[in-house]
Specification:
There is one protein chain. By secondary structure, the chain is an alpha/beta fold. The chain folds into two domains: 234 residues, Rossmann fold; 154 residues, no CATH class. 45% of the residues lie in helices and 15% in strands. It is built from 18 helices and 14 strands. The strands form four sheets. Strands 2-1-3-7-9-11-8 form a seven-stranded mixed beta sheet, sandwiched between helices. Helix 1 links the parallel strand 1 and strand 2. Helix 9 packs parallel to helix 13, helix 10 packs across helix 11 and helix 11 runs antiparallel to helix 12. The chain starts with 10 loop residues before the first strand and ends with a helix.
Length: 465
């Protein structure tokens, strides 16, 4: 089962608007297609960025809508889908007393309800599509029963909205109410989903939209039109999110790569993280550093952990003036960068590589300066914030003297020969002392005075025999 991530990979919208119908018994509407076109334009633009399919007027036949819904089944777990309809909707009750809603397509015959699309057939998309969040907005009137509304699941903290499934619906009014064509719900919807309003809120969900529409339209209509909204069966406490402030987050493409199952993709993303951690953007640098700390300790693959840890090894080497450690750390970083380059043409990784390229252009760390005596390393930039985990990672490298004391000296010929001469002299002295003792002992024995000269040794020798 695919894990749900705290972001959307892709966003899809199906927008349908019908003014007039093939069956003349349907009253012609004046604004449905214009409303649908306005919604499609809004969703395709920033900050929404949906891939929008629009079916207007005679394009919106029953088979065309069914085909479009079927195509949306191919979405993935971390995608979202929004289905919008403006046109005629009506309800029927079967002989068992069950009410069901119907959406009139361009080719629907008023007296043959099987030629319309049942609302349950449209909202049933959630049973087949992979997308974790699916929203349905009907600018037509249906009762809660006809929509299939269920009791809303317990509302979760906003951090959980994107990691739990949500299937939600809004309709313009209850089943026994009349929808105004020229003072439509869609006008308020477009106003609320405008970029300026969204940025003032920081977070805007489909429930926020439903509540606003319900309160505003009930007030403006004198309680004659009250929008219905809620969750459908299968919702798990998530929320369809129209907008969430992205400040304080890494670029979405990088986050997506860091969650990838393929460890090579994660290793390549580490190269982008390291570039961001060294960039001039202090906020993103801190976020990247926190991610590197997490990966260096907790990632399941050793190559990813090694690549992430290399950032802290480099930082420590810069502080200590350790040329060898500095080179080793940067070689590990180059290895991760090489992995990213090899994946550059893969879907999604082009954006990750572009993030790294842009971050490299803003680096603030000065390069090492080579001097005749070795490397004179400039101190690293001061970090405004440092987490406990980061300090622990730095402590994994043993403490050393200051950069000045530890800076390596240029080694010459004397540095090699002097120790050799000293060792040879020591060996010569030891040999001379040994030979003197041996010859002295032999001379004493030959002179016949060994009992007087070495009585303890003599006694020991005699005792052994």
């Amino acid at each position: 089962m695919t894990a749900l991530k705290p972001y959307y990979n892709r966003s899809y919208a199906l927008v349908i608007g019908i003014n007039s119908y093939a069956d003349p018994r349907f009253v012609t509407l004046g604004e449905a297609e214009a409303d649908a076109a306005a919604v499609a334009k809004l969703l395709a633009a920033e900050p929404h960025g949906y891939q929008v399919q629009t079916l207007l007027g005679e394009q919106a036949t029953r088979p065309a809508i069914q085909n479009a819904l079927h195509d949306l089944r191919a979405t993935d777990a971390n995608d979202r889908i929004l289905v919008y309809f403006a046109g005629h909707g009506f309800s029927r009750t079967d002989r068992l007393g069950n009410e069901f809603g119907l959406m009139a397509t361009f080719d629907t015959q008023l007296d043959r309800d099987h030629t319309a699309l049942e609302i349950s057939g449209i909202t049933g998309l959630r049973q087949f599509a992979g997308a974790k969040h699916i929203g349905f907005i009907f600018d037509a009137c249906f009762s809660g029963a006809a929509l299939g509304l269920t009791r809303s699941p317990q509302r979760m903290a906003s951090a959980k909205f994107l990691t739990r499934r949500a299937y939600q619906v809004i309709s313009a009014g209850a089943g026994d109410q009349t929808v105004s064509d020229y003072n439509s719900m869609t006008d308020l919807l477009v106003e609320q989903l405008h970029e300026d309003n969204l940025k003032r809120t920081g977070l805007y969900t489909l429930s926020d939209l439903g509540l606003y529409l319900r309160r505003t339209m009930a007030r403006d209509s004198g309680q004659t039109q009250i929008p219905q909204f809620g969750h459908l069966r299968g919702s798990e406490g998530g929320e369809f999110v129209f907008f969430m402030e992205t400040e304080g987050r890494l670029p979405t493409e990088v986050e997506s790569a860091l969650y990838a199952a393929n460890h090579y993709v994660r290793q390549g993303a580490v190269a982008a993280l390291i570039a961001l951690a060294k960039s001039g953007d202090e906020e993103k640098a801190q976020l990247a550093r926190e991610w590197l700390e997490r990966l260096a300790i907790a990632d399941l693959h050793p190559e990813v952990r090694k690549a992430a840890h290399s950032y802290f090894e480099e930082e420590n080497a810069l502080q200590l003036g350790d040329q060898q450690k500095l080179v080793e750390a940067r070689l590990k970083q180059e290895e991760a960068a090489g992995v990213l380059e090899s994946f550059r043409e893969k879907p999604g990784m082009q954006a990750v590589a572009r993030v790294r390229d842009e971050a490299l252009a803003t680096h603030t760390d000065p390069p090492p300066v080579i001097t005749p005596g070795g490397i004179q390393i400039e101190p690293p930039p001061t970090r405004s914030r440092e987490t406990v985990m980061g300090r622990a990672l730095l402590k994994t490298v043993p403490s050393r003297p200051s950069p000045v004391a530890a800076a390596p000296r240029q080694r010459g010929l004397n540095d090699v020969l002097l120790p050799l001469f000293m060792a040879a002299a020591l060996v010569t002295v030891l040999l001379a002392v040994g030979l003197a003792v041996i010859f002295g002992t032999a001379y004493a024995r030959q002179s016949g005075g060994q009992g007087e000269l070495l009585p303890p040794v003599q006694e020991t020798i005699e005792g052994q025999h």
